[in-house]
């Protein structure tokens, strides 16, 4: 007899199979028991009929507890009433392990309780769906960049300096010198782009930012492409093509998961390139007209400002050409202005905020050196980075996409803490 997983059931309609699973929930009605099973690949209902299986097996079905593990022998049948389209007609049950007093019951639980039991909360239907969508975004990311000639490169996690030039870094000792957990692999990816042309990285980043908003994590994952001989306008086109690709891939390959989360698919179906663009200058004027009287040119945008701008569009929107003073040292100046840089933030619809930050990078040696000095950075720590603009410098651009914010937007979940398996928050390092 073939042992299969739930997601393989459509290939075995009419066959008797064996499945290893956990009991997510159950109900019974007289001489019939309905077992809601999960095996990691999906969820399915198993029907246990007393007249078919006999007293002993039916008693097992009625007594088995939530999250107990078991083997089910059953016939795969078509069920048009199920969103999955199939169910199991049980013939035999073998209990592997009995779970006693499983803490997460079908009733409502508070967020802190669920976060304390994150290792178990991951088993729920909603969390399972979010993790599957996260996996699809990652798969689609590799697919997009490899199709477009990018090479995957892994920058270091331990670094001796900060690409953003901020103090929000986790400091550690590297033998007899100071080191930091990386907040971005960008500078190293620029070096890789000078060797390999078009590259991307995918890895964890760390921000010691004391923020408790629904958009922030202390540890999160970033996709960071860098592209030689690519200037600002072309970079924006690549960004919108990439985001459209992952959204459409999620729609195509995760329909059950999106339905389980109650996501409005019509809002995702329209996400196709090109995306609208608004300059920082025009965004300031727009916000003042909307009643944000306290904002002035030169201020950075907070969550309320980004949300107000995003609400005017039903697509992700680029905000371009921010002031020099609020952006990192490595961004290329506008060719016709010395007060703004060639950059853009991509703001997701529906209040999910910035999902991409990107820019054309400086490739002039003297200008790069000047900007490092203006930002008060230690030049010796950036000597290797300055070499990139000394030896064969070319125009180049790059960006970083925050995985968790993107997954939150596609999934429609409220908080990014649900989009990473084990979130690290300001008040949480457990489990």
Automatic annotation (TrEMBL):
Location of the protein in the cell: Cytoplasm
A cellular component term, taken from the record's GO annotations: cytoplasm
Pfam family membership, one: tRNA_anti-codon
Keywords, comma-separated and alphabetical: Aminoacyl-tRNA synthetase, ATP-binding, Cytoplasm, Ligase, Nucleotide-binding, Protein biosynthesis
Residue ranges of domain Aminoacyl-transfer RNA synthetases class-II family profile in the record: 131-431
Xref: InterPro entries: Aa-tRNA-synt_II, aa-tRNA-synth_II, aa-tRNA-synth_II/BPL/LPL, Asn-tRNA-ligase, Asp/Asn-tRNA-synth_IIb, NA-bd_OB-fold, NA-bd_OB_tRNA
Coiled coil: none
Major localization listed first in the record, in broad terms: cytoplasm
EC nos: 6.1.1.22
Subunit structure: Homodimer.
Full protein name: Asparagine--tRNA ligase
């Amino acid at each position: 007899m073939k042992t299969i997983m739930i997601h393989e059931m459509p290939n075995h309609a009419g066959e008797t199979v064996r499945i290893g699973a956990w009991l997510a929930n159950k109900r019974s009605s007289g001489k019939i028991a309905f077992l809601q099973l999960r095996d990691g690949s999906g969820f399915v209902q198993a029907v246990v009929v007393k007249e078919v299986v006999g007293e002993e097996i039916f008693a097992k079905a009625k007594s088995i507890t939530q999250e107990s593990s078991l083997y089910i022998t059953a016939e795969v049948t078509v069920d048009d009433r199920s969103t999955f389209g199939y169910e199991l007609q049980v013939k035999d049950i073998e209990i592997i392990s009995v779970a006693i007093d499983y803490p997460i019951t079908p009733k409502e639980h508070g967020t802190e309780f669920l976060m304390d039991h994150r290792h178990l909360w991951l088993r729920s239907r909603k969390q399972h769906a979010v993790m599957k969508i996260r996996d699809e975004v990652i798969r689609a990311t590799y697919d997009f960049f490899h199709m477009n000639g990018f090479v995957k490169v892994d920058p270091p996690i331990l670094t001796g300096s900060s690409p953003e030039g901020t103090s929000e870094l986790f400091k550690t000792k590297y033998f007899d010198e100071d080191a930091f957990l990386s907040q971005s692999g960008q500078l190293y990816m620029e070096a890789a782009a000078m060797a390999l042309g078009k590259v991307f990285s995918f890895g964890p980043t760390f921000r010691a930012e004391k923020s408790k908003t629904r958009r922030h994590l202390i540890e999160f994952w970033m996709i960071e492409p860098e592209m030689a001989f690519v200037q600002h306008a072309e970079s924006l086109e690549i960004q919108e093509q990439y985001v459209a690709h992952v959204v459409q891939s999620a729609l195509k390959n995760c329909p059950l998961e999106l339905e389980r989360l109650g996501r409005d698919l019509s809002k995702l179906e329209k996400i196709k390139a090109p995306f609208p663009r608004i300059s920082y200058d025009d965004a300031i004027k727009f916000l003042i007209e909307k009643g944000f009287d306290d904002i002035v040119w030169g201020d950075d945008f907070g969550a309320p400002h980004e949300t107000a701008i995003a609400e005017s569009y039903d697509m992700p929107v680029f905000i371009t050409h921010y002031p020099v003073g609020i952006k990192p040292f490595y961004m290329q100046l506008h060719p016709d202005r010395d007060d703004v840089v060639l950059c853009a933030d991509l703001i997701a619809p529906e209040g999910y905020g910035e999902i991409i930050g990107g820019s054309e990078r400086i490739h002039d040696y003297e200008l790069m050196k000047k900007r490092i000095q203006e930002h008060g950075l230690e030049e010796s720590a950036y000597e290797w980075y300055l070499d990139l603009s000394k030896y064969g410098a070319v125009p180049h651009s790059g960006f970083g996409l925050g995985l968790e914010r993107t997954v939150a937007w596609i999934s429609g979940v409220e908080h990014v803490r649900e989009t990473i398996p084990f979130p690290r928050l300001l008040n949480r390092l457990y489990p």
